[in-house]
Amino acid sequence: MDNGQRASDNAEGSADLVLHMIGNAHLDPVWLWRWQEGYAEIKATFRSALDRMKEFPEFVFTCAGAAYYRWVEENAPEMFAELRQRVAEGRWVIVGGWWIQPDCNLPSGESFARHALYSQRYFRERFGVMAKVGYNVDSFGHHGMLPQLLKQSGMEYYVFMRPEQHEKAMESNLFWWESKDGSRVLAYRIPLGYTTRPNDGVTEKIEALGKTMEEQGTDQMCFYGVGNHGGGPTIANLLDIRAAREKWGQEAIQLSSPNAYFERVMQKGGEHALRLPVVQDDLQHHASGCYSAHSETKASNREAEHRLLTAEKWSTMAHHMLKLPYRNERFQEAWESVMFNQFHDIMGGCSIKEAYQDARESYGHALYIAAASMNAAMQKISWSIGTMRPGIVSLTRDKDRTLWEQNDLGVPFVVFNPHSWEVTTPVQIPQQMKGVTDEAEVPQQIQRVRASRTNGGDKYDTLFLAKVPAMGYRVYWIYREQAKFEEVREAAPELSVTPTSLENRFIRLDIESHTGYIKRLADKRTGVDVLSGKGAVPVVIDEYDCDTWAHGKWSFRDELGRFADAKISVVEEGPVRGCLRVTSRYGGSVLRQDFMLHKDSADIQVKVKLDWQERHKMLKLSFPVHVEQPTATYEIPYGTIERPVNGEEEAGQQWLDISGTSPASGCKIGLALLNNGKYAFDVKDSELRMTVARGAIFADHYGQRDELCEFMDQGVQEFAYALVPHEGSWQDAGVVRKAYELGVPLSYVIETYHEGNLPQRYCGIRIESEHVVATAFKKAEEADGYILRCYETDGRPAAGAIEVPMLGRKWTAAFGPCEIKTFLIPYDPKLDIAETNLLEL
C-alpha cells in the first residue's frame, strides 16, 4: 500500500476503497486433537476475544459455529451472558449459520438444510439475530448447489478460502456465485490466509492487500488472529492495526466484519455490482484425498443421514395416523451428532486416529436414536393394520417357535417403502418359508437363499420380489408349510446362472474366470456391449508421495498392480435372483464381490467385502464405458454437475454417470455407477473409476514417517454398488431413484393376527412428476403442521400435483431446474399449504 498515494486518493475521493480487518479465531474442534480439547479451547478463545473487547474499544470479533456457542452456553453461562451483550452491541458478529464448518462436498443436501435449520433457529432464539454470511474458511472445496442452500437459509453472502488462486484461478476475490437453479450469492475468497501466527505482525498482509484492492478495484478483507487451535486476535495484532491506521488513514483501514464488508459492497450497488464476475461452477479443488480418506466415517455418515430421514417419515406417519408422540428434540439431538461429525477435518479423514473412535461413538448415538424411532413408528403402524383371519380366536404358539402362524393361515409380513415412488425390489424374509402371497392372496415367486446364521439346518432365508407403494407399506403373507408358489405358472426360466455368467431378458454379464473381471456386459435391449474392456477391475494405485489430504495431487493414476488370482462360485441360483461370488487377491488383501442380477431388472448389484492390508496404496474399481464423446455427470448435494473427463479426482454423492455415443449403433447410451457409501471418483476419457480405499497415514502432513505410523482403512469394510446400463440419458434411466433405492433398502416387520383400522396396503404420497423427489417429511419445528421437502432431480422444469392422502391434501407445484421446495402443511385443513424456506420461517 503506497502511503502517499492512498492518502491522496482518499482525500480527493477518487478511490473510495476500504480494507476491512476481520478479527477471527479459526477453531478446529477436532483435528490433531480430540473434541474434549477443542471444547476447552473454544471457551478459552471466547474468553480471550471478550478480553480484547475490553482492552480495545474498536475491536470487532467474527465467529461461526452454533455448536461452539452451545458449548459455552452449557458450560460457562456467565461468559455466555457477556457474549450476548457483545452481540447486541454489534461488536461480536455471528456468521456461518451452520452447526460447524463442515466439509462442503460430502454431506447430503438435506444435511446442509439441517445445519441451517437448527443453527439459524438457535442464533435467533439466543441472540435475536441470524447469520447473513455463509462462512467456511477452511473447508476443502464447495459444491455447486450451495448458493441455493445458502439463499434458502437466510444467507446472501459467502466467505471461503479454499481452493486458493493456484488451485482455481479467478480474476477477482469478490464475485457472484450462481448455482444451477439460478440462485446467486455474493462470494469472497480470502487472500493470504484466515489466520496470523503468534508473534507475527499483520503489517505485511495489510500492505499486500492494499495492492490487491487497487488491482481489483474492490474493498478487500484482511483476516487476522491466531487460529486452527483457536486463540484469536492478539494484543500485538491490534497494536499493529492501530499503527497501520495511523499511517494509512482511519477510513482506509477499518476494524470490521464480513457483514459490514458485504453491506458496504452492496451499498455501492448498481454498476459496481454488475461488473463483478459470475462463477457458475463448483469451487474446487483442494485436498482431493479427503474425498476418500477413512472409509468408515464416510460410510457411517451416509447411513446416518438416510436412517434419520427414514425414521422421521415413519414417525410423522405414526404420529398423525396413530397419535404416537413425535419427538423433535430427539431427532435434533441425533442430527447434531451427525452435523458435528461432518466437520471438515473429521469427515475429510485427516484427523488423528483417536478422533475416529469419538466419531464412531457419535455416529452410533445418532444411528441408535434413528433406529429406535423408526422401529417404534413402524411397529405402531403394523400393529394397527387389520390382519385377523377367520378361525383365529387368540394368539398361541403351538405350531412354530418363531412364528405365530395358526392353521396354515400364514403370517403377515409388512414391508415399508420410505421413498416417494413405488419400489419393486427383492426382499429377504429371515425364515425358511414355502409360500408367499400378497394381500389379495396372489402367490409370489420365492427363492431359498443363504442366511447369515448357521444354526443346524436353519441356515436359509426366503427371497421374493416386493412391490410397495410410495412412502407406504404393503402386507405380504408368508407360509411355513403351504407351498403357494406352486400356484405360479411355470414358464421358461427368466434368469440364467452359469459358473461365470448371469443373464435375463435384459442383460448378460460374463466374468473372466482367472481374473474375476467383467469380461462382457451386453445390453440385450440395445444390442451393444456396455464396456469397451474389462470391468470391475480392482486397480491398486501408488500414493506413497501423498500426505493424508493428498495436497497438490489432482489425479491418482500411478498403477502398481491389480487384484487377480480369482475364485468364482455360484452363491444364488433361482427364479428371483442369481449371484456369482468373485474372490480375488493382491498382496495381503482380499476382495470379495457378489454380482447379483434379478429377473426383472437390467441393473447389476454388487455387494463388496474388502480386507485391505496395503499401506501408501489406493484401491479403485475401473469401468471403461464403450462410448465416444463421453459426458460425465456427478450427483452433488441436491443437484448434479457435469465435469471434464480429464482423470482428476472428483467428489460425488450416490451416483456418477458416463454417457455418449455408441460406436456400434450410433445411439446415445451410458452406464451409471451407484454406491451406498463412497464419495471419490475419476473419469479419464470414457473410463470411470470409483475410489474404494486408501492406506494413508493418520494426520500425515508430509511428516517424518517411521515404523510407528498408523494407517487408515486397514482391515475389513463392506459396501455396495450397482451398474445401471441405459439407452438415452441418465434421466431416462431413472438413475436418481435407483441410487436412493440402493442406499435405503426397504424395511419390514413380521406381525401376527390382530384387529386394526389400517388397510393391508397403503400409499402415503403421490407425486405426479417423475423427476421430483420428496426427501424429508417431518413435523414442523414450531408451526402446527408438517414439513415436506422436495427437489427437482433432472435439471429441467417440472410441474404437477402432489398428494399426501393421510393429510387429505393435494396441491400443484412448479419446480425450476434443480429447485428445492419446502412445503408447510398446516394441521388445520382450512389453512392453505405454504411454501417456506429451509429454516421453516
TrEMBL record:
GO biological process: mannose metabolic process; oligosaccharide catabolic process
Database matches in Gene3D superfamilies: Glycoside hydrolase 38, N terminal domain, Glycoside hydrolase family 38, central domain, Golgi alpha-mannosidase II, Golgi alpha-mannosidase II, domain 4
Cited SUPFAM superfamilies: Families 57/38 glycoside transferase middle domain, Galactose mutarotase-like, Glycoside hydrolase/deacetylase
Similarity remark: Belongs to the glycosyl hydrolase 38 family.
Molecular function, one GO term: alpha-mannosidase activity
Residue intervals of the Glycoside hydrolase family 38 central domain: 285-363
Keyword tRNA processing belongs to the record: no
Domain of life: Bacteria
Assigned keywords, A-Z: Glycosidase, Hydrolase, Metal-binding
Name recorded for this polypeptide: Alpha-mannosidase
Pfam families assigned: Alpha-mann_mid (PF09261), Glyco_hydro_38C (PF07748), Glyco_hydro_38N (PF01074)
Record carries keyword Signal: no
Species name: Paenibacillus thalictri
